[in-house]
Amino acid sequence: MRTKIVAGNWKMHKNAEETEDLLNDLIDKLPNDVEARVIVAPTFVNLSSAVEHLQFTNIGVAAQNMHQSEAGAFTGEISADMLKSIGVNIVILGHSERRAYFHETDALLAEKVNTALKHELEVIFCFGEELKDRQSEQHFNLVENQLKDALFHLEAKDWKNIILAYEPVWAIGTGETASPEQAQEMHKFIRETIASKFGADVADNVSILYGGSVKPENAKEIFSKPDVDGGLIGGAALKAVDFSAIVAGV
Description:
Layout: E1 5-9, H1 16-29, E2 37-41, H2 47-53, E3 59-63, H3 80-85, E4 90-93, H4 96-101, H5 106-118, E5 122-127, H6 131-135, H7 139-151, E6 162-166, H8 180-198, H9 200-205, E7 208-210, H10 219-223, E8 230-233, H11 240-248
Parallel strand pairs: 1-2, 1-8, 2-3, 3-4, 4-5, 5-6, 6-7
Helix pairs in contact: 1-11, 5-7, 7-8
């Protein structure tokens, strides 16, 4: 059975004190009986304290990015070994904002995935189409190419450390809305695409998260779809009451 996962990407929010406050609120408010795996991704400067703060809880800690190189003259960058050394074992790669603002390509992301897996990091791999791709009906082709270019060089055994996160960029902060049916349609396509290369066993066991503006009001309906295994949550992850309600919707 696939693992249900709800991951909160805090992006560039929350200083040290605010991070501690939010973590305390999450510990207090998260449902005790939820079956979903819960992950939070604070900023780099607060990762170590988050790991320490959550060490006796069931909440995992992820980094929002990492460099593809082992070490070197890359000012401002963070390596896989640095993450592992502070107890971080999960990393988000390929987020739509990294692609858009920092021009990360699928070729680069393939290198990052390789480095992460080499260091036994679990990867939450993000991908998805923009509005122009959806309007031109190229969304399936684009998603297929993103998967093939960044992940299809892997071996079947590597997929035990891969979590997929589909981001319909066109439905995030644009006023457009993706329906639960559209989410299911794409998630089903993603699973079929994985199966075509790696077989049904790999495809049936990989968790595919939805990253398109999940909120407490729509979480339960979206998560009820057969190929949606949870969510990668942005803004709603910054409020414990909202994030807890989303987790409860799994």
